[in-house]
Specification:
Layout lengths: L2 H12 L11 H11 L4 H14 L3 H6 L2 H8 L6 H16 L8 H4 L7 H12 L8 H11 L10 H12 L5 H14 L18 H4 L16 E11 L8 E2 L10 E2 L2 E4 L5 H11 L6 E6 L5 E4 L3 E12 L9 H4 L6 H10 L1
Parallel strand pairs: 1-7
Antiparallel strand pairs: 1-4, 2-3, 5-7, 6-7
Helix pairs in contact: 1-11, 2-3, 2-8, 8-11, 9-11
């Protein structure tokens, strides 16, 4: 019995029941794959169900405002996925009359759809024999076949795609692709897999050579940038506040936030008071500036660690363009700011 047969047999006995696996609808498959990028299934499942409830078809998603889409996405991170999802929905709905491309190569032409997502849609929706290659697949193949190619290198994707193509069951591409991803997610996990119960323990090269923990090889390390954010939570006599939309490219693009002062290090209350008074171009009398809870929130992103402190700025009179917190809560925020608002207002 070959590699693919063992894999598929394991999958049929151990797979999780997930809603997108019971569908060949390319819209549902595409939606699930975009949500599950950089996201665990347990976290992504409620978002998938929520998106389908709000936007049952690609036309519904295309007609939504970006603000609605970002609000539903709130908490998933990597918000460019949501913006690309929305833009691609518009193209499919309005330019392609709701018809998804039906081949791997055509799918690659859509915004936000790379090689992995295109392969997933093409195989799951249209049974095209093209292999998916993601982190799970790298791990399974590198261990079973003892491939020590650095998966962060430029040649890795082509090498592993060729290997996956060689071992996949071309008559059952959807089943094979689901199986190898599920096997990596449930059995051949990154740390301390239980190889004693693995269907491949007799043939796995990494197990025989005691290299399970060292494969796959990844030499390139992510460089982390440290940033320091001071959010100014203005409150007037009506308990109204100010928020604005991040329009610059970078993290949290088009999400909302409180007025921000970014510094090069953690700032004391005295330093922040000086910065606020220096930068206060609102022409309001400030009665008090005090930190909420007097501790910092460390928000970790893939390439950045952001130290955040929220400051209450109490002013006399009414804020021009001030909003109530009931209104503010309806806007899409980075999850760290949303959690702060929920806790304090």
């Amino acid at each position: 019995m070959g590699f693919s047969n063992y894999l598929i047999q394991w999958y049929l006995q151990n797979k999780r029941e997930l809603p997108w696996r019971n569908s060949q609808n390319p819209y549902e498959i595409w939606l699930s794959e975009i949500i599950l990028q950089q996201t665990r299934v347990a976290q992504g499942l409620p978002y998938f169900e929520s998106f389908l409830a709000h936007f049952p078809t690609v036309f519904d998603l295309a007609k939504a405002s970006e603000e609605q889409v970002l609000k539903l996405w709130q908490g998933l991170g990597y918000y460019s996925r949501a913006r690309n999802l929305h833009q691609t929905a518009k193209i499919i709905a309005f330019e392609k009359k709701g018809q998804f491309p039906k081949t791997y190569n055509e799918l690659l032409g859509l915004k936000g759809i790379g090689t992995y997502t295109a392969a997933a849609i093409a195989s799951f929706a249209y049974d095209e024999a093209v292999p998916v290659v993601d982190g799970n697949v790298y791990r399974v193949l590198s261990r079973y076949f003892n491939v020590d190619t650095d998966i962060s290198s430029s040649k890795a994707k082509n090498e592993f795609t060729a290997l996956a193509n060689e071992v996949m069951d071309s008559k059952q591409p959807a089943l094979f692709n689901q199986a190898i991803m599920e096997f990596g997610a449930l059995q051949c996990v990154p740390k301390n897999p239980d190889c004693s119960v693995c269907v491949f323990n007799a043939g796995c090269a990494a197990l025989q050579m005691k290299k399970v923990q060292s494969l796959p090889v990844k030499l390139k390390k992510t460089k982390i940038t440290n940033r320091f954010f001071n959010y100014l939570v203005f409150q007037d006599t009506n308990n109204y506040s100010l928020v604005n939309q991040r329009t610059s490219k970078g993290i949290w693009h088009n999400l909302y936030e409180f007025p921000l002062i970014e510094t090069e290090k953690i700032s004391s209350e005295k330093e922040v008071v000086q910065l606020v008074r220096k930068q206060n171009n609102l022409n309001y009398k400030i009665n008090a500036i005090v930190a909420f809870d007097n501790f910092d929130v460390i928000h970790k992103l893939s390439h950045q660690h952001i130290t955040i402190r929220f400051w209450r700025i109490e002013i006399e009179g009414e804020l021009k363009n001030g909003l109530s917190f009931d209104t503010i809560k309806k806007l899409p925020f980075p999850i760290v700011i949303y959690n702060f608002i929920e806790k304090n207002f």
